Amino acid sequence: MPELPEVETVANELRRSLLKSKIEYIDALWSKSFENNCDIELKDQVINSIDRRGKYLILKLSLSNLVIHLRMTGQLLYFENETATDFDDYIRVIIKLYDGLLLFRDVRKFGRIYHVQNVEKFLSHVGPDALDEKVDLSFFQKQLSTSSMNIKAFLLSQRFISGMGNIYTDEALFASRINPSKAANKLTKKRAENLFLNMRTILKASIRNMGSTISDYRDPAGNRGTNQYYFNVYGREGLPCKICNTNIKKIKFAGRGTHYCPKCQRI
Hints:
The protein is of the alpha+beta class and 267 residues long. It has helices at residues 4-18, 119-122, 137-145, 151-156, 166-175, 189-208, and strands spanning 23-28, 34-36, 47-53, 56-61, 65-69, 74-80, 91-97, 100-106, 112-116, 249-253, 256-260.
């Protein structure tokens, strides 16, 4: 599933192409991929800005908003002046612009495009973004102190902070030498600080690397990310730890496959 770095990469790429573009129409080829929760007409609305919160992409229009969640296999593909060549069976939504075309491709049909008026109300269940300026160390430590959840589940929940998924949670916990079963409110101030700094460093590095492509993720031009070449634990089950040479383990934890080093992350 695309996480914060992948969605930010998509947002960055779309900003170069979509800003000030005007929507001609939206055609949902698979009806469940597009949820119209707003009575405002989309035709002739201008895309004024492109934002992101956690794993959600937000297209702010003249009068309303399009909120996009790529989920497992969603892709946004942009074509200038309708030069689309990728109309395969997995195109779920066509966003026709007067000067181009934005296609929502989704193999497994879990992704959604929501048309809403009030973004804050719609995303009220989503915590502040992991790279938001207001998510400083003090805020992060306070959030940790409120939860007895294990740290893996805490970072995945999206309620306390948003944007972290399985990949970057595993990588941040390894970099901080924290076992995924450790209770969030049991982390010392020093370990919480290390986790906070490593989380942000890893997310920013992945954005610079255009995200991680494990299987389906592509940017709007169809390019793969390269951050997967820098993983320390994720996807490295059975391979030696780059720090201590112990084999990386993969277990089912917090409902997700979890990669960790049993020696470096003992506590």
